[in-house]
Amino acid sequence: AQSVTQPDIHITVSEGASLELRCNYSYGATPYLFWYVQSPGQGLQLLLKYFSGDTLVQGIKGFEAEFKRSQSSFNLRKPSVHWSDAAEYFCAASFMEYGNKLVFGAGTILRVKS
Amino acid sequence: EPEVTQTPSHQVTQMGQEVILRCVPISNHLYFYWYRQILGQKVEFLVSFYNNEISEKSEIFDDQFSVERPDGSNFTLKIRSTKLEDSAMYFCASSELASSTDTQYFGPGTRLTVL
Fold first, then answer.
1. CB-based contacts of B12: which residues, under 8 Å, 6+ apart?
2. What is the residue-level pLDDT of chain B in tens, covering all 115 positions?
3. Domain coordinates of chain A in residue numbers?
4. Which residues of B touch A42 (CB under 8 A)?
5. SS3 sequence, B51-102?
6. Could you name the CATH architecture of A3-113?
7. Is B11 exposed, middle or buried (0-12, 13-18, 19+ CB in 10 A)?
8. I need a surface site. Which of B62, B67, B78, B97 has the fewest CB within 10 A?
9. Searching chain A, which residue's CA lies closest to the CA of residue B36?
10. Into how many domains does chain B fold?
11. Which domain range does residue B19 map to?
12. Is the peptide bond before B8 cis (omega within 30 degrees of 0)?
């Protein structure tokens, strides 16, 4: 069955350091891929999405993600983390043959230390 | 910027009681969803709704659950007889189009606690 895996439950980085959050999917074809962020008390906000074309996708708040078909991965990156980036990050996918429901990873909680 | 809103933010209920969770999707959106997240688990899809009928539902969405668009703005999730295991955060989402590629916009969630 189709699934999304985020192997890191928690990540702590220093402010100003680079960040990479991992996401892998299990599916026979290329799914549509999304990264969402959730701050406390807020809804899930879309950071970026990938459907096709250029495998490096730019999003809001200085985030980018790279799709790698060979690794079934869609990792989220940011070159320099700000304290306000502390939040929970969710990778999600939709699979064309399975309607437009989103399948989520377990989420990664990002802590930023000053 | 338009946003999805949900009420209440927190609902506490006794087991066996009926609850209705309310959502106001973004006004020009046509496709609506409910997801839930049990504490410590993944966000999981419950149901999608389009053109006044259910488009798709998961195994979780059994006869205890129902959805309705009672008027032009609200979208509700009803749990007929709550169980302890229904305790979760419930997220409403909406999208403009009925497409796998269209962005789903999420509300802040309603935390349901069943005692």
1. B113, B115
2. 789 999 999 999 999 999 999 999 999 899 999 999 998 889 999 999 998 999 999 999 999 999 999 887 899 999 999 999 999 999 999 999 877 778 899 999 999 999 9
3. 3-113
4. 108
5. CCEEEEECCCCCCCEEEECCCCCCEEEEECCCCHHHCEEEEEEEECCCCCCC
6. Sandwich (2.60)
7. middle
8. B62
9. A104
10. 1
11. 5-97+105-114
12. yes
Q: Name the percent of chain B in helix, strand, coil, to the closest 5.
A: 5, 50, 50
Q: Exposed (0-12), middle (13-18) or buried (19+): which is A14, by Cβ within 10 Å?
A: exposed
How many Cβ atoms are within 10 Å of B16's Cβ, its own excluded? 10
Check A43 against B101: CB less than 8 A apart.
no
B 12-71 residues inside an 8 A Cβ radius of A: 31, 33, 35, 41-45, 48, 55-56, 58
Using an 8 Å CB-CB cutoff, list chain B residues near A32.
100-101
